[in-house]
Amino acid sequence: MKIIYFAIIALFLASCTNYLDKGPLTSLSSAQYWTSEASIRTFSWGFLSGNTSTGVFGNYFFGYGQNYSYGPYYENLGGAPTSDDYAGGGNIFATTVPNTGAWNYAWVRKANIFIASVQTATGINDSTRNHWLGVGRFFRALAYELIIQSYGDCPYYNTVVDQSQTALLYKPRDPRSLVVDSMIADFDYAIAHTRVSEVTLGYPQGTTITRDVEAAFASRIMLYEASVFRYYPTVFGYDKSKASGYYQKAKQYALDVINSGRYSINNSTVSGGGDPLRSLFVSYNLAGNPEVIMYRSYASGIVSHSVESYCAYQNAQVGISKNLLDAFLCKDGLPQKQSPTINLDPTTSSFSYRKFKTGTSLLDPRIGSTICPDSLRLQSAAFTGANGDADYALTGMAIRKFLNDNDYYTASLNTNLTSAPIVCYDEVLLNYAEACAEIANTSISGNVPVPIAQSDLDISINKLRDRLMIAMPHLQVIGGYPAVNNVMINDPDRDVNPDGTSYEVPPMIWEIRRERRIELALEGFRFYDLMRWGKLHYMDYTRTPQLTVNRGAWINMSAGLDPKTGNSSSLTYKLKPLLAANNVDNTVATPWLGTTGTPGGGGGPASGYILYSTSSTTITSRAFKSSGFGSGTMSGLEVYLSPIGKDQFTLYQNAGYGNNLTQNPGWTGR
Amino acid sequence: MTFFLVLFTVAGSYAQTRVIKGKVVDATNQPIIGATVKVAGTSVGTITDVNGFYSLSVASKGKLLFSFMGYKPAEEAIGDRSVINVTLGESNVQLNDVVVVGYGTQRKANLTGAVATVDTKVLDSRPITDVSRGLEGVTSGLTITAPTGDLGVNPSIMLRGSVGSLGNGASTSGAGTPLVLIDGVEVPSLMMINPNDIATISVLKDAASCAVYGARATWGVILITTKQGRKNQPTTVDYSFNMSENTPTITMKEADAPTTASFLLAVNQRANPTNPADANGGFVYANAATIQTMKQWLTSYGNKNLGDNIVRGRDYDIIGGKFYGYRTYDPTDLYLRRYTPMSQHNISISGGGEKTSYNISGAYLDQSGQLKVNPDSYKRYNLNANVNSSINEWLDVKLNTALSNSTLTTPFNLMNTASRYNSFYYMYRWSSFSPYGYIDGQPVKDGVDAVSQANDNTTGSTLSRITISATAKISKELTFDADYTYSNEDTQATVRGGDFYALNTWGTPDPTTPSGFDYGIVSSNTNYIENDFMYQRTRAFNGYFTFNKKIKLNNIKIIAGVNTEDFIQDGFVAKKANLILNSQADLALATGTQTVGPIGSGYLTSSPTQWSTAGAFGRINYSYNDKYLAEFDMRYDGSSLFPATNRWAIFPSGSLGWRFTEEKFMKPVTNILTSGKLRASYGVLGNQDVAPNSFISTLTPYYGTSVNTGGSLWYVNGANQTFTGTPSTVSSSLTWEKVATADFGVDLQLFNDLGITYDWYQRVTSNMITAGTPVPLTFGTTAAYQNFGSLTTDGWELQLNYRHIFNNGLTVNLSAGLSDYIQTITKWVYSTSYTGYRVGQRIGNVYGYKFDRFFTIDDFQRDATGAILVSNGQYVLKPGIATQSQLGTFGPGDVKYKDLNGDGALTAGAGTVSDHGDMTLLGNSTPRDQYNFTIGASWKGFDFNMFFQGVGREKNWIGSSATIPGYDTGNSPTLLTTQTSYWYTPNVTDPTKSNYFVSQVNDPQYPRPQNSGTANVGNFEISDKYMQNFAYLRCKNLSIGYSLPKSTISKAYMQKVRFYVSIDNLFTFDHLTAPVDPETGSVGDAIAYGRSYPFSKNYSIGLQVTY
Known about the structure:
The complex is a heterodimer.
Chain A (H helix, E strand, L loop, with lengths): L1 H13 L1 H4 L8 E2 H4 L3 H12 L57 H15 L5 H26 L14 H4 L6 H18 L17 H21 L10 H19 L15 H4 L12 E5 L10 H5 L10 H6 L27 H5 L7 H4 L8 E2 L39 E5 H16 L13 H5 L2 H5 L9 E4 L2 E4 L2 E2 L18 H13 L6 H8 L17 E6 L16 E2 L18 E2 L12 E5 L4 H7 L23 H9 L16
Antiparallel strand pairs in A: 2-4, 3-9, 5-6, 6-7, 8-11, 10-11
Chain B lengths: L1 H13 L2 E10 L9 E4 L5 E3 L5 E7 L3 E5 L6 E4 L8 E3 L5 H4 E4 L2 E4 L7 E4 L12 H5 L6 E4 L10 E4 L19 E4 L2 E2 L11 E7 L2 H4 L10 E6 L6 E16 L8 H15 L7 E2 L4 E2 L1 H14 L14 E4 L2 E4 L5 H5 L4 E13 L3 E13 L8 E16 L2 E17 L11 H4 L11 E2 L2 E2 L3 H7 L2 E18 L4 E19 L4 E3 L15 E3 L6 E24 L2 E24 L16 E5 L10 E16 L3 E12 L8 E11 L14 E15 L10 E2 L1 E2 L1 E3 L2 E2 L4 E2 L2 E2 L2 E2 L12 E14 L3 E13 L2 E2 L15 E2 L2 E16 L5 E17 L17 E4 L2 E4 L15 E2 L2 E2 L19 E3 L22 E5 L3 E12 L2 E12 L1 E2 L71 E2 L2 E12 L2 H4 L6 E9 L3 E3 L25 E11 L1
Parallel strand pairs in B: 1-7, 13-16
Antiparallel strand pairs in B: 1-4, 2-3, 2-5, 5-6, 8-9, 10-15, 11-12, 13-14, 15-16, 17-22, 17-65, 18-19, 20-21, 22-23, 23-24, 24-25, 25-28, 26-27, 28-29, 29-32, 30-31, 32-33, 33-34, 33-35, 35-36, 36-37, 37-38, 38-46, 40-45, 41-42, 43-44, 46-47, 47-50, 48-49, 50-51, 51-58, 52-57, 53-56, 54-55, 58-59, ...
Helix pairs in contact in B: 5-6
């Protein structure tokens, strides 16, 4: 009998091994998670997630955001300027070293966990595994790009580090080139192994990470890194010889997309979308659009955004700067200061009086997909509440690119449903053109020829100029210099070196950059372009010609004239510069105007350019200051890399690794 | 085995038999009914009848054994007698003689661990609703806290400390909570147990006593057994009844309208002396002129009952589009009833024959809440039944079933669905001039009307529990016990919302209506029905051998067995908006959006969880001649809360005892010191009490919940794609927390009457799971928890018991307990923080500034006009007076703190140990010197018992509107009657006037009015002056009973009839300046502090009858 008891107990104990396996009920056990492609895919959505409460992966896949958060497509009233495309504002850069915080390795860690988990995942075959390894390595490269864009050199890890691996966690910063080379290895692996399409798996083209998405992003990122290595002065310590190789990679990745034959410039329009360029941004369904490589969809009652509402009739905005307006070529393909078709004197020109409205017909038609051309958007003096003509822009020039004309009166709150392009073919072509030009470029400055092949321009920029309803003359290369219709382009606004005589940017590079600015206007590229070119001082609107960053439209507020239309009218308008320090509602009697570039005070003349910021002290203290790279000194250049928080230095010091962490140039002691 | 049976039968049939008769009585010559009379060494026996008589056929030789619970057993040689009458003396210690310990019982005399037993009489004849409240103050070292008087809520139980570990989130907040086992198995809610069903309670305090229970018993064990039938006992029927009226011990009361409004206006005056903003009493306003009207109102109507009709012009007015109140309301009186009834009925039937015994009990509790309109209530039904049967000579089987059903009913929160903002919060949310009642028959938006319009939320719980167990006597020395318990508690909460219709006195007045207000729906997001369903299932198995052997003077007892237990708690929440009819709230009768989610996402806060444990345990008790005692305990424990690689651990412990009074050299004093024992024990236990998933890496799924909320928000294929977050990090070296307890004790018995037990212990929690050493950002996430840090608890407990029966029958019971402990951090991550966790920091320490006095006008520099100089927004102090500019802006009437370090400025320094500025240690919030004492006596059927409990030292800073006038006046524009003495200059609004800065209140308690927000700032930096002192002494219970003489009642076949009156919380002495009950303690939500369910004083009468 005792034996039976013992046997029962023994049996019972033997069964205990399973008895104690009680997993968590409200979360998933890591050990059991990686067992199918479905679970891998579920994890991967976390990288594409736009959910601001759980973390957004840079701006890579944010699109138009959701709810009341928007991507880089809109400049909020009172916000700091994100580029010279918008009128001025505050300073977006740190001025002192913060107490805490620095690079964000959360995405690196997440990607490394993803890669390691996919490597050992069960329930998938090798090609599936390789696909997801590719996706994982692509994400890792994106994660490092976020870090090096802000901080430059950084410790590089391609494995999941345990917190006990102290020496590894506190290791010195690896050179940026090592990080970029590792990113190239990740991009190359990803592009070689990732699926071309997941349509047969039920995911429409453009909604998931595919080879073309990776190649398009890779060309963007390599162009960025190549520019940094070429243009950043030696004080940053980057190996300039790396640049041409990186331009080659940028070109190659762009060519991967071009040669796939799967994409072309969109020539179709949607209702309310105007031309085919704007149709990309105001479409309710981008599926099948030949130019869209990846896009974010919205659905009523599930995910919706507010970008349209912000641009529509119920919302005021900062508005577009005259600087961007001035960058548009004339219809003949020549810069405004070079073209004979246009009179630039605002007081005499029919173009320049209400220049903006009537003048736009003289410019590159892409002006119409960028800025609302019908009239100036000014705030009526009669306006008091939240509705009516609240659509004013402080500069008078409002964003049109992201607003479907049909939705002007119906776009409401956070319920917008237009699809957001994530990455498009036109950008890839511009990446390609710039990479080709820089490969052909032998100097970073001077009035030098850049012998890019005409064929390279023809498959890139000239495709954009051929777009239906845009139809701009082709860009030619003549002896390494830009031309249209065999007329050489020579923009007098081109950067001037500190010696005051020579040009800083070769004419061909200048024109290719212009094309990028115009085609991709307001899409969030401009700031990063200025950053990589070392041209952040374009945002300093106390400099000439960047004074125009602080300017809006030219208006005449003479009695009886409606500045919106120029016609006789009893309507009056008020200009409302939103300055935190001087938020004064000015009546029509004392408009904030100035005819010259000199900032005026209250009670300016009745006609002139709208000035966003009018107090000279405000301008001096708030305007962004940066030296051009041409000056060669660090002063003012520290903004190109962000400072690392003080707490990190303390931490390294206390852990005995004080020598391993160095502050970014220009930040020590601030 | 059959052989033994045959043997007995044969033995019986061959014996010569004759009949012996007699009577068994107690010391007062009252018959003892149901006493067992048994022939020694046989199974032959009987029990006495209602008159104490017995009759038994016995063999000629041998002894008769007489026994009855509560009496000393007696034995009589049969000899030639045919009548044997016996008087049984009452036993002092008999009930305590055998103590329930883990997996068995032990003679108290031979205990080597720290085990206390509770006299379960404390649970009788008191109007208590649950076991935990009954245990308050009865045993040293046990701390029961219930921060509110809410119905149907479990108090928290702590043993020997307020925290077990400083787990920093890795351990659950309840760390330090002892394991409470009812008949060997935990129940999710002690509220479901009927206190009347309890037979014994043992509290196992030290590691050695708890070791057999392993990792779940880290913080001690409370063993509760329920009443069982006994064999060979006539059927007895017990009935008891208790009816009580409950009244709040203390309630906060708001000051009258002009007093409150003057205060609020004074707060605004601080910002703008000459033209202060109107005082806002919660959507109703007052200014200097209307305060005069308020005063007139009090003169005219203060003593009249105007009913609930609100009259424009008399009670309020709308002036300039603004709502001004004139009338004084007493929200407490409007919300609360003064007396609420509660009744309890208990009935039990028990008895037993030769082979089978049984006990069946039923109980009903009906408790009514204190809300005046639409009262809340708590009802509970209990049904217990157990049967114990000897199948044969070697096998006993037992079935134990329990069914308990409770329903808690509370009104829906129409004012605000967040749980903090319940009716009791709203009782003190608005000022006393915020209106309650009806204007022209339409209610205004007020909390009382919200309660009256609210549907009832109900929370129903049903506990059903069944235990089958068997005991096999394998041999004379060896028995095997096995039991299996299945316990299930279902909880269903129905939340019945609706719309609240009222005059919108919170909105902008509407001049087009006669009342001035619009009538309509004034609640938002309340129109829904929600059903929560949760089940909590426990399954437990125990199987163990007990071996008992005596070899000469050596006594060995070995227990070895296994234990498994698993628990799951899960359920769901279903919610649907837009009821068709407010009055009929049901999922089927709503038309809006419906949502479903896991339990915890709605009204019930428990989240899904599950765990299981398995362990093998053993215990060896050895004693030599009952003099030298030794015990060794061991548990090999496994827990599902740990990863497979780190799941099992061994926890050994041991204890030694020496009954020195058994030594020969003690003989001369044993007539004084009848018994004495020294004990020592040491053991180490692991702590299983960790937050879920502390030891395994998990991924959290994020799924879409509503528009633009949750999930990845990446919309593909018709859905917002769910995604899983980055796996949590778990340190590879993370391991169990270890809790080691050393305990030294002494047990003394003097003159047989006085028992003294003293224990000193030290408990060290080491390997504490704390936030890891910081890692650089390159790690990509915050450091995972690590084992770092130690917490040491040093404490002692003293228990005295005195019981004496005088010759005249007067019985006196006196008992007293005193205990104390301190908890100190003995190892921690390097930190110099003065107030935070660091080595040497004592848990509960409160740091702050020392109050000096109030500033006066003479402290400041003035200009020629008499106005105080101002510089940088600060009043300029005279030279030599320490500046407080770092703490805020201070003027006359504001608090002046002491410049302890004499540097001329009040600062917190760097907040480090070496530089803490003027901060100093003000006190400690841990209850120290907790004590209790009982005075009891009985004589000739009368009994009297008084039970006191108290706390010797406890201080804490409470930032709340209950303690600080002006605390967050934006959200709580109230002033309590206890807060009316403040620095005040009425009617002087010109700062240049000489009397503007001179208080017209003499020696005010509180400083110049200020809205201190919800932070401890300005006048209400943490300081000694406004600390609360929670030391108290309370007469917890007084009961007086009378039992009818047995001679009288036996004619009615009754054994016992007792009437009693009992009063709980009769009187209290405390030092609190805030009008809260001292048992509230200093825990809980500071913002809602004191604005919670009141504690009550209970007057009860009862009846106990035994047939």
